[in-house]
Amino acid sequence: MERVRILGAGPAGLSAAITLARAGCDVDIFEARGDVGTRFHGDLQGLENWSSETDVLEEFRGMGIGTGFEYAPYRDLSVSNGQEVLDFSCGRPAFYLVRRGSSGGSLDTALRDRALDAGAEIHFFRRRAEEEADIVATGPVRDGLVAIAKGFTFSTSMENTAVGIIDQTASRKGYAYLLAMNGRGCIATVLMDNFQDAGACLERAKALFAGMTDLDIRDPAPCGGVGSFRTATRYRDGDRLYVGEAAGLQDPMWGFGMRFAVRSGYLAAQSIIEGTDYERAASEAFGDLIRAGTVNRYLWDRYAVRNYAFLFERLKSVRDPLKHLRSFHSFNVYQRLLYPRARRYLNAEYEEKKEGPSPEL
């Protein structure tokens, strides 16, 4: 049996490990931290369900990854400009909320346990050079950090809730959100610029959510993270395969990346098992999605963030936002025409952020 070495025990690395071990390969995962999910503290995150016609949970089951983690579907969601709230109801779940972290029921621990049950070995507190790995799944690329999220998790009596705010006082070129799932909640602001304003934006977001919901916060604990994207992905370097954020796979618009991570890990593993071309498979799976996201980011930066009021008015005519979200990720004719300009703009606009120091949360 072939022995495969994987760097990183995040969703991408664990997805690859599960697939390889189930096929009879010997798998060693090297993880620098002491457990999976230690970057998170019960954070609530969304598994997006709009970039494909296939439901994301059905996709996970079809790949053999399983859905042994706690999740909740969200068909109903609200968007606010800080003064007015728009309520939407989707034809199917727009996303599934999951918990991240090292506690039972999280996405991370469920994937860890499935990998171990399949026979993979995880070596915690162990680092390896990329040159020693077959699959690199080491998370965000530090020279591509262009966004941060700052927030807190809490216990709550609130019903399952999803509310987003598009307002320049609650974020900087980004958005803020309130999520509640099964007695746990999370409030965060996502900034694409002026990272030093994260604390003020978070306080503003909290105040706005308190004004529009029956906000119940108990035992708050800080959470946060960083986001990265590249207009050019990297799937292979010699014999090494790159997956998840290490490959540059994160939606440039909204920052969703878990679905990309899990699928890329699966595709990399399948290429080793079947002797197929991972680079080609990944390009077919993610190329148009990343290019469409690049155009969406460009349009957001150039026009939407300068006119939140216009964007909010446009949302009033939308009945099912899921259809619009899917169309935004289809890399349509209009996006194809704009893509060269969008790529040049993002490369120039975010170069300073990529070269600067990493933001402190």
Automatic annotation (TrEMBL):
What InterPro entries does the database record attribute to this sequence? Answer: FAD/NAD-bd_sf (IPR036188), Geranylgeranyl_reductase (IPR050407)
The identity of this protein, by name, is NAD(P)/FAD-dependent oxidoreductase
